[in-house]
Design goal:
By secondary structure, this protein is an all-alpha fold. The protein has one domain (2-87). It contains 2 helices and no strands. Helix 1 runs antiparallel to helix 2. The longest helix has 59 residues, at 2-60. The two termini are 44 Å apart.
Length: 88
């Protein structure tokens, strides 16, 4: 009888821990989704800036600005790719 009670307590502890971990994971996934949306918005802004720089480049030759924007977009793409790996 005591062994059964101990086993039931162990099972209950495992289920409680599972519920806690599941909640923590869901909270973290929600945070990552929010952060990913922010990074996506920033990436879109950078992409628009790059497109504007391309338009100005015909007149102003702003190669250094374009390169900086490309690097920033690549960095954001890497962060988004890492976020997708975590989400899947």
């Amino acid at each position: 009888m005591m062994q059964r009670n101990a086993l039931e307590a162990d099972v209950e502890a495992v289920l409680t821990r599972y519920d806690t971990v599941a909640r923590e994971v869901m909270i973290q996934l929600a945070r990552w989704a929010s952060e990913r949306a922010e990074w996506q918005a920033e990436r879109e802004e950078l992409q628009e800036a790059l497109e504007r720089a391309h338009e100005r480049d015909a007149r102003l030759q702003v190669a250094s600005l374009q390169e900086a924007l490309r690097r920033a977009i690549s960095r954001v793409d890497g962060i988004l790719a890492a976020a997708e790996e975590v989400e899947s």
